[in-house]
Amino acid sequence: MTAQTAWPENVIARYLTVGGSSLGRDDLAVDLTYRLTVHNPPKPFATLASCAGCPATEEVSHYRTNWGSEEEEHDPEAADADARIWAQSHAETCRAIPKPA
Questions:
Q1: How many Å from the N-terminal Cα to the C-terminal Cα in the chain?
Q2: What is the pTM of this model?
Q3: Beta 44-51 vs 71-74: how paired, if at all?
Q4: In this structure, are residues 76 and 62 in contact, taking their beta carbons and an 8 Å threshold?
Q5: Residue 2: pLDDT above 70?
Q6: Phi/psi of residue 7, nearest 5 degrees
């Protein structure tokens, strides 16, 4: 087992892929980060899950439309939960590893 590498800046959660664990590489993971607005100061508007082993990504908006009132509500916790579910599911099956340089 190799030593664990530091997480990249701004990563809020990390899920090790099957491909990464089979090689003993914790850098082959699905990372969750926040997508930020261009406002000053920037504010998160979505949670992004991206795989380091393949091009798969999933972006979940922090804003949900309440169809009963057609109003938009800000719910970052629900977005984080949905992104975590996707990341866990993807990491459990992804065997991809990046092509060597």
A1: 23
A2: 0.83
A3: unpaired
A4: yes
A5: no
A6: -70, 145
For the chain, what's the residue count?
101
| Structural tokens at position 12 | 């809020």
Confidence bin at 3 (pLDDT 50/70/90): low
Question: What are the pLDDT digits (tens) for 13-65?
Answer: 999 999 888 887 877 899 999 999 888 888 899 999 999 989 999 999 999 88
Cα dihedral across residues 100, 1, 24, 49: positive or negative: negative
Report the C-alpha gap between 96 and 101 in whole angstroms.
15
Q: Which two tokens stand for residue 2?
A: 């190799």
Give the ranges where the chain is alpha helix by DSSP (H).
18-23, 76-93
Q: Which of 89, 34, 87, 93 is nearest to 58 (CA)?
A: 87
